[in-house]
Amino acid sequence: MNLIEIIKTIFLGIVEGITEWLPISSTGHMILVDEFIHMNITPEFKEMFLVVIQLGAILSVVVLYFSKLFPFTIDRGIHIDKEKFSMWFKIIVATIPAAIVGVLFEDQMNQYFNNYQTVAIMLILFGILFIVVENRNKNKIPKVNSIAEITYNTAFLIGIWQLIAAVFPGTSRSGATIIGALLLGVSRTVATEFTFFLAIPAMFGASLLKLLKFGLAFTTSELAILLVGMFTAFIVSILAIKFLMGYIKKNDFKPFGWYRIILGIVVLVYFFVIR
193, CA 20 to 30 Å: which among 83, 92, 135, 200? Predict the structure, then answer.
């Protein structure tokens, strides 16, 4: 792998690390990036790479939130933290809808919805929805102010919003689940953290399926690309997550809504008029 391919891979890792956690759609950005940065890889490896690179992003959540995620305490023996176990069960409940549909209908979803029209429409639609929801919640006090207060019913409904993102590229997994949580009365901070935690099984499962489909017969160059991309996504994800958590403590999500609308229009103009 030459220096140019390394630079391209690092750039893709940066884009993944930023857009996976900010509610602005990693798919929408990757579509635009792919138009201008062409990597010297096979289409099959590229399809797998753009999903499996997410493993680096997942690891950043595990590292940053390990104390909140690890359900055991070690103090004169190993003890179970029941509250954290309960949180994991809620995460599993929220993961079920997208997992079932993803396993059964992945090929059909890619065939009918994996196109720039769907991405642009969902970017704009959920951008508008962010603005509407934030205006609606402007003077409301959240009903749920900790992950422990999220019920199994609420977790499942958040999972339905994640399902929408799984079906329609451009929705943004984090964007959809955050909007769903906000509509259900969850505070911004808790909605965002739960979205981060929900990404662990969702993204790990999607990456595992892609790896199994592609196989483990990597060339040296392909393995280097994958590792560089994952490492870059890991480092950038840590910075992106810290930025977002600091930002939402004092601000709302409306700027992200406007950004999505602008990006959706850019995608439409580029593919419909310029390209």
Answer: 135
Kindly report the number of other CB atoms within 10 A of residue 239's CB atom: 14
**Would the pLDDT of 195 be above 80?**
yes
One-letter amino acid for residue 14 of the chain: I
Domain chopping of the chain, boundaries: 3-274
Q: 212 vs 52, 60, 209, CA distance in Å?
A: 11, 23, 5
The band of 135, judged by pLDDT with boundaries at 50, 70 and 90, is very high
Q: Is the distance from CB of 167 to CB of 101 less than 8 angstroms?
A: yes
Instruction: List pLDDT tens digits, range 90-102.
Output: 999 999 999 898 8
Summarize pLDDT for 113-126 with one digit per residue, the tens: 888 889 999 999 99
The whole-angstrom separation of Cα 226 and Cα 58 is 15
pLDDT at 218 over 90: no
pLDDT at position 1, please? 65
**DSSP one-letter string for 96-164:** HHHHHHHHHHHHHHHHHH-SHHHHHHHHHHHHHHHHHHHHHTTTPPPSB-SGGG--HHHHHHHHHHHHH
